Amino acid sequence: MRLTLCSLLCVAMATGIYACGGNQTDSELRYEFSTETVPREYIVRYAGYHGNEARACLLSGALAGLPCAWRAVRRDNPAAQHPSDFDLLRLAFNCTPALTAEATRRLLASDAVRSVTPQRRVTRTLHGFGPADEDVELPRWHSRRSFSHAPIVSGGLGAGVRPAPTQITSALQADVLWSVGFSGRGVRVSVFDTGLAAGHGHFKRGRVKERSNWTNEKTLDDGLGHGTFVAGVIASYRDCLGFAPDADLYIFRVFTNAQVSYTSWFLDAFNYAMLRRIHVINLSIGGPDFLDRPFVDKVWELTSNGVVLVSAIGNDGPLYGTLNNPADQMDVVGVGGIDFDDRVARFSSRGMTTWELPDGYGRLKPDIVTYGAGMRGSGLRETCRALSGTSVASPVVAGAVALLYSAVLHRGPVINPASIKQALLASARRLPDANMFEQGHGKLDLLRAYQLLRAYKPQASLSPSYIDFTDCPYMWPYCSQPMYFTGLPVVVNVTILNGMSVAGRIRGEPLWIDGQNGRLLTVSATHSELLWPWSGWLALQLGVAEAGADFDGVAEGWLNFTVETVGAGVGEETSTELSLPVRVRIAPRPPRSRRLLWDQFHSLRYPSGYFPRDNLRVKLDPLDWHGDHPHTNFRDLYGRLRSAGYFVEVAGRPLTCYNASNYGALLLVDTEEEFFPEEVAKLGRDVAAGLSVLVLADWYNTSVMRRVRFFDENTRQWWVPDTGGANVPALNDLLGQFGVALGDRVLDGEFRLGDRLVAFSSGCDIAKFPDDGRVLTAALADEGHQLMQAGGAKSRLEVRAPVLGFAHAGSQPVRPGTGRIAVLGDSNCADSAHQLADCYWLVAAMLHFATAARLPAFADGFQTWKSAGVPPSPLPMRMEGSRLRLHSRVLLPSAPDQIDAASPRRRHRPLPACPTPSPCRRVAAEAAGDSKRPAFRAASLALLPEDRVPLPPDRLSAESLESAIRNRQQTAAAPIDRAFRLFALSCTLLAAAGLLAFAASRCRRRLSRRARPGLAPGALVRSASAGIDQPLLFSGAARAGLQKGSGIF
């Protein structure tokens, strides 16, 4: 199953502590999400745009004679009168799955039809909780993700962080651009959200050019407040200010008051935005489904038509691998969030992108970060409120882009999605303590971006602009482990931004130039055939040559290539010569016992299939979508392994492609993919030659899989998982040759190893093990038994089952040189996503056994499998009707569910050939010339000379901007000067008053010697603290001050 995109709506933070025009709300909000595929509704996309009659003819011709009813759904929205590139097809109840497949086949047989995909629906639920001064719960996506993070404190006074500024626009210096005449005028900005009320007082009269409704409700107003907030951050002109108050706003209401939206609504709205020639779109939405082709393709179409898309990167931090689409696309500006202490917000999603897994490595995202915690913006009742989330950071950047755009509108097509993004990235301020997958290029710098755009010369650029494995922490994880001879090539994916034209290409082949010790590196590069729209990718593979086997030091070089336009460009420039400097740390080859091979090839995740969560306790997060990679949800485990002295290499190809003699252990962690028969055979040979295997498994039970089907309560449709938490039947095929098999029990609970507690969450039991292998038998709850019970009170069934085992592989007595097997039936304790308590120490102990043949001390009391007398446990069978074969790279699409013993290869695809990348052409640095040597620095852009910089109609120059900046600094300093002068005057007056009081007291004492009156109210007494006489009419606070010895002013 593939679920639709969900909104990245933010969670409100303490809102009662900042003044905003004299009033402010103090409610807090939380959002929950659920997503469904709508049954019997399909989006039929065409190869071009057609009118209503033409599309009706296409459908009628393709579906003529279909023995079930169908109709094209009428779309009542502003785009209905214009040609469209899709129809929404609804099939009748009598359309069986076979007839639905026949309808799809007929449609796809037409040259006019591009694709047929299910319609998707997203439901969003808003809840209020807690007073305004309480801690804030992190945002959750209860339909697909829910992480147990510690609360974060709202950005208020006393919270330990710098309080939010009164105006976010001042914090980012938008008022400097306002002072020189730029305010968004002439820029058309659209907000895709929950709508906006007519005549809202925070927006200038006439600036809201159009409000359109794309939902099935008959209203244009915002019943929730999120759309109002987002629009206010972009264009409010009073109280809580927006960045571009004179921009033309186009409000697209794509969510109902019941917080429901559909993919088709977005597609129609996107088409209409292109008709309206929108410049900038803010999308505070997102989801993990980068394979939702109608949506992704439409985003590409938007940017190819010159629309700048700004989108929230996601609220699923601090976990890595949680980027959301469309913000993770190369052509979109993906925005993360920081607090007002310039620290990456805990809720902000982290990279890498997971499109490229398991073959390679993800791209750099987010692109940029800006303030998104405790942000103030417009409320429904023309008040101000504070919200947090990347959906708040996104309109900050969208508003800044609108402001920048208005300052360079006169430059025409030179300003495009690529050039805007290039200026944002090149001008960003890097945060000192965050890595590239947390902050992207750094914090938004509005004024530097303006200066770059003003003198921008159409060109291509790179993101990141350099590769430096010695630059920590920014270049994590590349800087976390040195390279060495025989190590797997390290893949670095670089995004190419092409501001010269919407389509481009790399001319010829890249050239590698050896710098210092560069000859010790092996270098190959692959790249996009076509850079479109405005962008493409370059994959650099780096390894160490045999000459560097004993080298310990740094090697450098750089990759040169040329990007050229395809078709018409936006200016005179038709090509850009680019250089990517590379610096790596090389170490001598580590011993075999310290090298680990992490199997990434057999990890599958959503999308494209329905791969369920590993921890069944997490009821509201049905999907496994984080990549199961050592640099995403297993990042903390990777860090512990590196700290323990292990070297981790990631295998993105079948096990047949690796020389096992280089590695001490193979790590099989939460694998969902099947294994090729050739892999099974090779692993047997490798273990016999000394390779050890460590397995972290998960649950697999077909009855439970049916029980945890994804259920749409609105459409009453079930979606069956493609596998369990792990593909245990496939693991049993692989491990059976060593006398190891995993069972189908689903167990939950905890047990002790020595003085440590181990959380076991929805794991499986060990059903078979070598007789002399050591196993731990623990008392755990049978979670599968509980899940299978009907509603109401559910009884707990406790069972004793083996869950942890250590064994020497091979026959007994053990032949010297054979490997070892260590098995744990659960991976959740090593997975940061839904971790109850970590077990990194246990994984380290298992690895010590696997690589050094030393049984951990806590296992001394373990029984052997033979003496444990474990009763037989059923082995799991593969799920009948599973769709795994449709998403597998091992199984044939037509493969049967069960293995055919007579002809097992009928299930498998041919074993793919192992990749042999072609090395780049290379020359020595001396041949290239020192003038060609690039610098290791953040992104920079080639700019036009000052005398060629085009000026706007009012002739604003660079001097105007510099003058405005100086004026701002002087204005900011003026209150300090005034305060100092007032302080000095106060001191003078106090000194004078003290002298007068002293003189008066001497006079009174002289008079008191002549008379002895009683002490009357209001008389004077001496204050030891102030040194002068004070009246007796003190307040309580004043008395407290005197008691503390502090002066009262």
UniProtKB/TrEMBL annotation:
<keyword id="KW-0597">Phosphoprotein</keyword>
<dbReference type="Pfam" id="PF23094">
    <property type="entry name" value="MBTPS1_3rd"/>
</dbReference>
<dbReference type="GO" id="GO:0000139">
    <property type="term" value="C:Golgi membrane"/>
</dbReference>
<keyword id="KW-0256">Endoplasmic reticulum</keyword>
<keyword id="KW-0812">Transmembrane</keyword>
<dbReference type="InterPro" id="IPR057060">
    <property type="entry name" value="MBTPS1_3rd"/>
</dbReference>
<keyword id="KW-0472">Membrane</keyword>
<keyword id="KW-0720">Serine protease</keyword>
<feature type="domain" description="Peptidase S8/S53">
    <location>
        <begin position="184"/>
        <end position="442"/>
    </location>
</feature>
<keyword id="KW-0333">Golgi apparatus</keyword>
<protein>
    <recommendedName>
        <fullName>Membrane-bound transcription factor site-1 protease</fullName>
        <ecNumber>3.4.21.112</ecNumber>
    </recommendedName>
</protein>
<keyword id="KW-1133">Transmembrane helix</keyword>
<dbReference type="InterPro" id="IPR022398">
    <property type="entry name" value="Peptidase_S8_His-AS"/>
</dbReference>
<dbReference type="GO" id="GO:0005789">
    <property type="term" value="C:endoplasmic reticulum membrane"/>
</dbReference>
<keyword id="KW-0443">Lipid metabolism</keyword>
<dbReference type="InterPro" id="IPR000209">
    <property type="entry name" value="Peptidase_S8/S53_dom"/>
</dbReference>
<keyword id="KW-0378">Hydrolase</keyword>
<feature type="domain" description="Membrane-bound transcription factor site-1 protease-like N-terminal">
    <location>
        <begin position="38"/>
        <end position="120"/>
    </location>
</feature>
<feature type="signal peptide">
    <location>
        <begin position="1"/>
        <end position="19"/>
    </location>
</feature>
<keyword id="KW-0325">Glycoprotein</keyword>
<dbReference type="GO" id="GO:0006508">
    <property type="term" value="P:proteolysis"/>
</dbReference>
<dbReference type="GO" id="GO:0004252">
    <property type="term" value="F:serine-type endopeptidase activity"/>
</dbReference>
<keyword id="KW-0645">Protease</keyword>
<dbReference type="InterPro" id="IPR055143">
    <property type="entry name" value="MBTP1_N"/>
</dbReference>
<feature type="active site" description="Charge relay system">
    <location>
        <position position="193"/>
    </location>
</feature>
<dbReference type="InterPro" id="IPR015500">
    <property type="entry name" value="Peptidase_S8_subtilisin-rel"/>
</dbReference>
<dbReference type="InterPro" id="IPR036852">
    <property type="entry name" value="Peptidase_S8/S53_dom_sf"/>
</dbReference>
<keyword id="KW-1207">Sterol metabolism</keyword>
<comment type="similarity">
    <text>Belongs to the peptidase S8 family.</text>
</comment>
<keyword id="KW-0106">Calcium</keyword>
<dbReference type="Pfam" id="PF23090">
    <property type="entry name" value="MBTPS1_4th"/>
</dbReference>
<keyword id="KW-0153">Cholesterol metabolism</keyword>
<feature type="active site" description="Charge relay system">
    <location>
        <position position="226"/>
    </location>
</feature>
<dbReference type="GO" id="GO:0008203">
    <property type="term" value="P:cholesterol metabolic process"/>
</dbReference>
<dbReference type="Pfam" id="PF00082">
    <property type="entry name" value="Peptidase_S8"/>
</dbReference>
<keyword id="KW-0068">Autocatalytic cleavage</keyword>
<dbReference type="Pfam" id="PF23001">
    <property type="entry name" value="MBTP1_N"/>
</dbReference>
<dbReference type="InterPro" id="IPR023828">
    <property type="entry name" value="Peptidase_S8_Ser-AS"/>
</dbReference>
<keyword id="KW-0732">Signal</keyword>
<dbReference type="InterPro" id="IPR057032">
    <property type="entry name" value="MBTPS1_4th"/>
</dbReference>
<feature type="transmembrane region" description="Helical">
    <location>
        <begin position="979"/>
        <end position="1000"/>
    </location>
</feature>
<keyword id="KW-0753">Steroid metabolism</keyword>
